[in-house]
């Protein structure tokens, strides 16, 4: 066979991410607040875009009502902002996914808000951080600039709770100053507000607050020096050590409980993202649920066509005309992507409300097991699309504000064998049982298993322990100590 160059014609197929698809994927995963920032950049970069009162033609259309054809008795879901002509965005690009979620996920609810939800401008004030708060005070404490330099260095080492974890000898070595100088600077820092900041241990933090309140007598000093006995509930031993009667000891415990173990947390530790709902749910379920996007956070964009016509009439250069056409295409693509994003969010939210109607009617104990695959199959979309829609999105209803992923929970087998129940419902029952117990009748994990089985939850003891720890409830021994301490105080 002779070797030589030749030409071959072959056909092949490949999956390519167009700029429009990349933009749609990016927008779908952003929250409304992040969309607002994205729109701000787009307005700066594209002269044909401008903020307007009406961003989508569908806003002038009457509201549509969507009923489940397979269940005529199902509650109506009234969707605000979705027309019939345009279909939601479904990005089925399995080969390109890098962040897929199976949906077996549970998040902690952020309670608050009413049926209408907070507005876009209801954000937390920019509070100074703990370091900034301390820096503002340090200049008025001493006129010794060398001492203030060491004190400012110590402020930079204090964590967000207000504690100094770096050994003073290490600080002295790094600054090249005597240890006594560092101790003197620390004493200056510990005089700053809030009281207790700069402490190297919990005992020192509480002692500083007791001194500030003029309650640091020998009895209180012994109590603070033996906090491990307080945690174990050994009150009889502590009363002997402090040489006080029951009444004085109770007063000391009340005083101790009034101190702040983390004084630095009173001040901002940095930027905190505001939680603003993207979706608003209203109605009581009897007349249907009304599902709407939060109009206060919706981006509003229009293309300034008169300005485009004016610019095009003045363009004599072919390159300028091409640049102007590209800007117009980008503007139209962005508005279309925003429109599709909102339709997709509404469709996913409607299915979540339909699947978790028990939660919206009766509370967390009626949450059903739900995965993203179930929602994706119900609305005939790809699972990755549902994953992006539920990322960084919050839903506000009469029960509070919840992240969309809160409604996706794994299932637990029920004792009657008729189906599975949500893990969140089980956690709610465990929390209710533990909160109702008294100090003299603390429920063990085995007892919790029995009580849950009576309520229809078939769980193993290790599963109950796992859920109990996940919601921050201690063991029976820890709860007994805590309740005894609360009863004495």
From TrEMBL:
Residues 323-481 form the RNA polymerase sigma factor 54 DNA-binding domain. The keyword Transferase applies. Pfam families: Sigma54_AID, Sigma54_CBD, Sigma54_DBD. Residues 123-307 form the RNA polymerase sigma factor 54 core-binding domain. InterPro entries: RNA_pol_sigma_54 (IPR000394), RNA_pol_sigma_54_core-bd (IPR007046), RNA_pol_sigma_54_DNA-bd (IPR007634), RpoN_core-bd_sf (IPR038709). The keyword DNA-binding applies. Keywords: DNA-binding, DNA-directed RNA polymerase, Nucleotidyltransferase, Sigma factor, Transcription, Transcription regulation, Transferase. Coiled coil: none annotated. Residues 96-126 are annotated as: Disordered. Sigma factors are initiation factors that promote the attachment of RNA polymerase to specific initiation sites and are then released. Belongs to the sigma-54 factor family. This is RNA polymerase sigma-54 factor. It comes from Croceibacterium selenioxidans.
């Amino acid at each position: 066979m002779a070797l030589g160059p030749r030409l071959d014609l072959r056909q092949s197929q490949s999956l390519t991410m167009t700029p429009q698809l990349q933009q749609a994927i990016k927008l779908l995963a952003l929250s409304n607040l992040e969309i607002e920032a994205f729109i701000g950049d787009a307005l700066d970069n594209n002269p044909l875009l401008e903020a307007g009162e009406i961003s989508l033609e569908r806003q002038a259309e009457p509201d549509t009502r969507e009923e489940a054809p397979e269940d005529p008795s199902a509650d109506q879901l009234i969707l605000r902002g979705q027309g019939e002509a345009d279909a939601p965005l479904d990005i089925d690009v399995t080969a390109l996914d890098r962040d897929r979620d199976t949906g077996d996920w549970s998040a902690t609810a952020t309670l608050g808000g009413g049926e209408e939800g907070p507005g876009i401008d209801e954000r937390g004030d920019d509070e100074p951080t703990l370091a900034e708060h301390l820096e503002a005070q340090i200049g008025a404490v001493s006129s010794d600039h060398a001492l203030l330099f060491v004190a400012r260095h110590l402020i930079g080492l204090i964590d967000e709770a207000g504690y100094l974890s770096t050994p003073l000898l290490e600080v002295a070595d790094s600054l090249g100053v005597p240890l006594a100088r560092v101790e003197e600077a620390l004493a200056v820092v510990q005089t700053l507000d809030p009281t207790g900041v700069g402490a190297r241990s919990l005992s020192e933090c509480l002692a500083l607050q007791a001194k500030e309140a003029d309650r640091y007598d020998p009895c209180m000093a012994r109590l603070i020096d033996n906090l491990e006995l307080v945690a174990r509930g050994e009150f009889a031993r502590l009363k002997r050590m402090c040489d006080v009667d029951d009444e004085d000891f109770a007063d000391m415990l009340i005083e101790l409980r009034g101190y702040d173990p983390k004084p630095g947390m009173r001040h901002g530790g940095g930027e905190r993202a505001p939680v603003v709902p993207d979706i608003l749910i209203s109605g009581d379920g009897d007349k249907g649920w009304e599902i709407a996007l939060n109009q206060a956070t919706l981006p509003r964009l229009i293309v300034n066509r008169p300005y485009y016509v004016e610019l095009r009439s003045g363009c004599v250069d072919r390159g300028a005309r091409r640049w102007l056409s590209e800007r117009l295409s980008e503007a139209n693509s962005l508005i279309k992507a925003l429109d599709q994003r909102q339709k997709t969010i509404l469709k996913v939210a409607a299915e979540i409300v339909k699947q978790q109607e028990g939660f919206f009617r009766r509370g967390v104990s009626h949450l059903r097991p739900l995965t993203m695959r179930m929602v994706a199959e119900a609305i005939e979309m790809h699972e990755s699309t549902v994953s992006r829609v539920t990322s960084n999105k919050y839903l506000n209803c009469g029960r509070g504000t919840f992240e969309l992923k809160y409604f996706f929970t794994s299932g637990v087998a029920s004792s009657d064998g008729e189906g599975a129940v949500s893990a969140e419902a089980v956690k709610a029952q465990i929390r209710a049982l533990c909160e109702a117990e008294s100090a003299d009748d603390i429920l063990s994990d085995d007892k919790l298993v029995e009580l849950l089985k009576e309520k229809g939850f078939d769980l193993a003891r290790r599963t109950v322990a796992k859920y109990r720890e996940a919601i921050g409830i201690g063991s029976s021994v820890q709860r007994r100590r805590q309740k005894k301490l609360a009863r004495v105080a």
